[in-house]
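Lab notebook, design round three. We kept the backbone fixed and only want residue identities now. Task for the bench partner: fill in a sequence for the structure below.
Input structure tokens:
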């Protein structure tokens, strides 16, 4: 027999299991908040900007072809900045206890479209160290690029600075709690419908008709407790009489 569920039945199920849905939402949001505040390590960020320009010439002005050449070189520079040739020197200068591969994971290099500015971003659990790594990468790259590519068209445009009141860029506790609440809400709704589906008890006359395939021809109305008490009193008096 095909079973259909009306929109009204869905709302009845949600209202019936509302406590479960609310509880799962609150628990999931609380767990996400505890993990964000107490378990996850705060990560700080520092950025420095590098300008890729044309080597200064005495009598010739810049042309659009010169700028286009510089823009094409930026993609190569993005790779060179994160290469072991640069990162190993950064590790050596700062005395970092990590490999070029692990440092590479902390570094992000971006450049805006049609822009000659390259932004080097470093994320680290220590704000001061993030600033030092970003600035050292820019300095080492500026020093090494003439030897690596036989060019001299890189300058540090804006070094990373130590903020007065550093704040972590991640984790974002409020965002994590919101995501946790949504997951808890969905989980609670899913469990509510699952419990309703697994509940096979007979509750209404419609359930009886569906199980037996026979129409209901009569119903016994529930007897209020007050009427039961009165009937018991009358029966007791009759016995005594």
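Proposed sequence:
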């Amino acid at each position: 027999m095909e079973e259909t569920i009306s929109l009204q039945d869905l709302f009845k199920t949600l209202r019936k299991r509302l406590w479960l849905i609310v509880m799962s939402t609150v628990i999931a949001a609380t767990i996400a908040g505890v993990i964000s505040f107490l378990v996850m390590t705060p990560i700080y960020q520092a950025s420095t900007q590098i300008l890729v320009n044309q080597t200064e010439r005495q009598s010739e002005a810049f042309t659009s072809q010169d700028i286009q050449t510089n823009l094409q070189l930026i993609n190569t520079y993005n790779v060179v900045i994160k290469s072991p040739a640069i990162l190993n020197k950064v590790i050596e200068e700062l005395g970092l206890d990590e490999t070029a591969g692990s440092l590479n994971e902390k570094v992000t290099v971006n450049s805006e479209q049609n822009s000659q500015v390259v932004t080097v971003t470093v994320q680290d659990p220590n704000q001061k160290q993030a600033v030092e790594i970003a600035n050292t990468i820019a300095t080492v790259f500026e020093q090494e690029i003439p030897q690596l590519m036989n060019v001299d068209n890189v300058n540090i445009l804006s070094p990373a600075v130590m903020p007065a009141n550093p704040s972590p860029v991640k984790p974002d506790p409020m965002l994590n709690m919101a995501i946790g609440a949504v997951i808890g809400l969905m989980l609670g709704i899913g469990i509510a419908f699952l419990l309703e589906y697994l509940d096979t008890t007979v509750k209404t006359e419609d359930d009886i008709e569906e199980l037996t395939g026979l129409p209901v021809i009569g119903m016994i109305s529930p007897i209020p407790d007050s009427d039961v008490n009165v009937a018991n009193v009358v029966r007791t008096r009759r016995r005594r009489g």
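Keep this in mind before ordering anything: The CA atoms of residues 208 and 214 lie 8 Å apart.
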